[in-house]
Design a protein that fits this description.
14 helices
């Protein structure tokens, strides 16, 4: 497998690495972190921090901690999956294409993980422990649980603890309301199913048999859609007070999206989940800190 030369490892014949090699390797490393879900979760955290009224320094540390955690999880995932990706010919993966070396991805994952610890604890011990528990669950998924019937659990746990990480950093360390935790956990479990569907056959061919694989593609797609719909229902109907037009519209559009993507096995279900998450974030921002009990 051809590898991109770097300054530390000269090109063949001892010649210095091309000027464009280092930027190209950096782009490949960024691509290996699963940038779309990494950015989505980080932006969701930023919006939630704004909605609950976190001050600017607290919000910055919270968002930075989540970004570091997501980077570590994404790089860990691509590094652990390297042999399976080679076996299935995933040339879209930077490691398979040889655009970045495995050791570089390993070092990046561990560095991001180490940075995640102090950044998380900067929000306080209760908040930091909640976030680090979620990150540990995501690493457990990558290293072992993705091939078991418990594959859904790390997603549900990590997403479910994300609101707690944000609110426990507030004065008085309040826990988030139950409806928000439920909405986040259901969205995480639904995202897991949607994320599996594009690679369903490749996963089975390389020995990965998580819960969606055991259900089969049709039932898994139906379950994933119901989980995402349940997440939106919890977010819309859970808070006290009257549901506004945006809430009802969001619920209707989510239901329509679930019906429209049922039976689809490509990237469409996963992109639909991201769209629902973006709409959920908008709802949180529209309704603002009034959604949360005063401390």
């Amino acid at each position: 497998m051809q590898q991109t030369p770097t300054a530390a490892r000269p090109a063949d014949g001892g010649r210095p690495a091309p000027a464009g090699a280092r930027p190209a390797a950096a782009v490949a490393l960024l691509k290996a972190c699963h940038p779309l879900p990494t950015a989505a979760v980080t932006l969701f955290t930023a919006a939630l921090a704004a909605a609950v009224g976190r001050d600017l320094p607290g919000a910055v540390f919270t968002v930075a901690a989540v970004a570091a955690g997501q980077l570590s999880v994404g790089w860990c995932n691509d590094r652990v999956d390297l042999r399976r990706d080679v076996a299935t010919g995933r040339r879209d993966k930077p490691l398979v294409a040889g655009a970045v070396r495995p050791g570089v991805v390993t070092a990046a994952a561990l560095t991001a993980l180490l940075l995640c610890v102090p950044l998380s604890l900067a929000a306080g011990v209760p908040a930091g422990c909640a976030h680090l528990c979620g990150v540990a669950a995501a690493w457990a998924y990558n290293l072992r649980l993705k091939s078991t019937a418990w594959s859904w659990f790390p997603y549900a746990l990590a997403f479910g603890l994300l609101p707690a990480f944000v609110t426990l950093g507030l004065p008085g360390t309040p826990w988030p309301p139950a409806w928000l935790t439920a909405a986040a956990a259901l969205l995480g479990a639904g995202a897991h199913v949607a994320n599996v569907l594009p690679d369903f056959d490749d996963d089975l061919a390389t020995g990965v048999a998580g819960l969606p694989h055991r259900l089969g593609p049709r039932r898994a797609a139906a379950v994933g859609g119901l989980l995402v719909l349940g997440s939106t229902a919890a977010l819309v109907l859970g808070p006290p007070g009257r549901v506004g037009p945006y809430g009802w519209a969001l619920l209707a559009l989510t239901a329509a999206g679930v019906l429209g993507t049922s039976g689809r096995r490509g990237r469409v279900p996963f992109l639909a989940v991201l769209a629902v998450a973006a709409a959920d974030v908008t709802l949180l921002l529209v309704r603002g800190a009034g959604l949360f009990p005063p401390v």
